[in-house]
Design brief:
This protein is α/β, with parallel strands linked by helices. 44% of the residues lie in helices and 8% in strands.
């Protein structure tokens, strides 16, 4: 969670929506503004959750504080401070985001041979192709409804939006322009968005897997008006 008390900015970082690159752009903004930008990246321990009573607000636990949801940030900062700040986030086409999640899991997090020996595991999960990996997620979704929408990271428990602006990764510069405009600053560009794949996301899908993602993330697709692009 990047949070600046002097600028009054809260950025809700949803995983696999270019948040690392966007945070770098916010750091550049901070330098130009000469304000204080504080990046919270600590691991959320049981003690951290008990301190802020995060288990009592019905929100699943993220692995890092960087990806706290809007309702968790409101709970931690308090209503007054949360209301004072300018709040924004980015979302991403669910079909593209799913492909990015697959490559992040199977490339960036894939253990090498020595890691496998040290852990005493073959970790065959990492050797799955995209369709097999997505099929496993689809089975879990049918059993538990475990696919969580991006929109749910930005709303309260009644479904009301908690942020002032939701941009789309595909038009990320528009969000930076909105922010600098609200702050009365000159335009700041964003140089790079991390991408896990080189091919267009549509090339990884079959009609079957395309429909899986549409069903699992229907809320995002309808609310943010996303379409599957060939």
């Amino acid at each position: 969670m990047p949070y600046s008390k002097s600028l009054g900015i809260i950025y809700v970082a949803i995983p696999k929506t270019g948040s690392t690159s966007f945070i770098q752009a916010l750091e550049e903004l901070q330098k130009k503004h000469e304000g204080e930008l504080q990046l919270r990246r600590e691991v959320i321990t049981k003690r951290f959750r008990r301190r802020y009573q995060l288990d009592e607000i019905g929100d699943p636990r993220p692995a890092r504080a960087k990806h706290l949801s809007a309702i968790q940030l409101k709970y931690i900062l308090g209503d007054e401070e949360f209301s004072r700040c300018l709040k924004l986030s980015l979302v991403r086409n669910p079909w593209a985001r799913t492909v990015s999640q697959y490559f992040f899991t199977h490339q960036d997090l894939k253990p090498n041979f020595l890691d496998r020996v040290r852990r005493g595991t073959t970790r065959k999960f990492h050797d799955l192709g995209f369709e097999a990996w997505l099929s496993n997620r689809w089975i879990k979704y049918q059993q538990t409804g475990a696919a969580r929408s991006q929109l749910s990271k930005l709303t309260d428990l009644d479904g009301s939006l908690l942020v002032d602006h939701v941009g789309q990764l595909e038009d990320v510069q528009d969000t930076l322009d909105w922010l600098t405009g609200r702050l009365g600053m000159g335009r700041i560009g964003i140089s790079h968005i991390n991408r896990a794949t080189k091919s267009h996301y549509a090339s990884y899908y079959t009609p079957r897997t395309r429909d899986m993602v549409e069903e699992m993330y229907r809320e995002d697709i309808e609310y943010f008006k996303y379409q599957f692009e060939q």
